[in-house]
Design brief:
The structure is a homodimer of 226-residue chains. In chain A, 42% of the residues lie in helices and 22% in strands. Chain A contains 8 helices and 12 strands. The structure holds a DNA duplex (30 and 30 nucleotides).
DNA sequence: AATATGGATGCGCGGTTTTTTCATGGGAAC
DNA sequence: GTTCCCATGAAAAAACCGCGCATCCATATT
């Protein structure tokens, strides 16, 4: 079981890490919301402990954003009880809350409870997502997430990346892509595929010039590397 | 249990907050009727304590307006016993009344009683509402509320928005909407969907030209963003 | 029965966004 | 070094949506 702990107070994180590792959990850490978002995406933890007060992106916002693409159980930490009130009002999608300073035993108990619940209880509305590395497709909303940040895709762009991600590590010629994705539409120029690949790289790759997932097979076509 | 306390006398609010928090309740506050209306809408408290004399919108009016879209228990506070007589005459939908100055112990007792009663009553007749942001659907009355203000919807309009709000963040093509909402009726023109979406935006969005919830997914269809 | 009213539907124009096409330069393969 | 092949920028072409307005239809009113 892998737990992501997010807080900008290094000492507190160190303490939690020590305690949870003693309990047999794997622990990864982040010090702000943005980092947290990326780690949830790339490391796929089984549970997240998230502080509310943080630089870059606060815990509430991070929580909402994580919920856009993941159902991982989340525990929010807050410093004051008054903040807690505010927290409870809005639906950030957190599963549990804890006020600082807290008893480490209580945190451990709540983690156990949540993991048990997540393991048995049926998920809320089963969300339809497709994830590889830092790229996630939201099949319902027809959008993508790059390191947890939403990226809007056009209709054709989505069709192309969905097909490639559903059949990873497999090379498709431009003709094949036109046949499957453009199907019975007017048969367009073969270079059209290139342009869509370019747009996808611009939107989804960290460095579009050196793509890590949306790759070219020279003289053959394109493929999605998992 | 979350309680909304509404009064323009800051000192009194502070006192009530202190006492109720000691009792283990979460407390949120407002200083006039308008603010109260919004908080009931967005924060969904379990009980409301409402002063009658207030700027912007008095407690009686606020009470009536809250009743249009919520069954939350309400306790009205009034300064003079004479006003109380008047109050009792009209039906504002309040559940209990208290004359200032009151004993804090009495307020606490009445809150306990109301919450207990609501706890059992709610299980029998759950109120049917669907809320996101400033938009609320009244499933029984088949009307909508925009920031607490009632908006009349026609039959088809209600069908469309109800379906979209029950399945938020999910894109539906016009065909899919016609199939599910228009079901077995005569299959109308695909543009019909556009027109209903337009009407809904005019009625429910703050700025219909820049909708925040009822959104278009270019080349695909429409969706309700939560 | 005739008329009025309000909702649902159909159509087309104009502006916007997406998709496709095209030209050019730079890399990869041999 | 030569020959393909692909990436990139720009711009044309096509597709699509929003909106006003006309029409159809059902129900209520007189």
């Amino acid at each position: 079981m892998k737990i992501l702990v997010v807080d900008d107070e290094a000492l507190l994180v160190k303490g939690i890490r020590f305690n949870l590792q003693n309990e047999g959990y794997k622990v990864i850490t982040a010090s702000d919301g943005l980092e947290a978002l990326q780690l949830v995406q790339t490391q796929n933890p089984d549970l997240v402990v998230l502080d509310v007060m943080m630089p870059n992106m606060d815990g509430m916002t991070a929580c909402s954003k994580i919920r856009e693409f993941s159902d991982v159980p989340i525990i929010l930490l807050t410093a004051k009880t008054e903040d807690m009130d505010k927290l409870m009002g809005f639906d950030h999608g957190a599963d549990d809350y804890l006020t600082k300073p807290f008893n480490i035993l209580e945190l451990k108990a709540r983690i156990r409870a949540l993991l048990r619940r997540a393991g048995t209880a049926e998920r809320r509305t089963p969300s339809h997502h497709l994830t590889t590395g830092s790229i996630t497709l939201d099949l319902d909303g027809r959008n993508a997430y790059k390191s947890g940040v939403m990226v809007e895709l056009t209709a054709k762009e989505f069709d192309v990346i969905e097909f490639l991600m559903r059949n990873p590590n497999r090379v498709y010629s431009r003709e094949a892509l036109l046949d499957t994705i453009w199907a019975y539409e007017y048969r367009s120029d073969i270079r059209t595929v290139d342009v869509h690949i370019r747009r996808l790289r611009e939107k989804l790759e960290e460095n579009p010039a050196e793509p890590k997932h949306i790759l070219t097979k020279w003289g053959v076509g394109y493929y999605f590397k998992k």
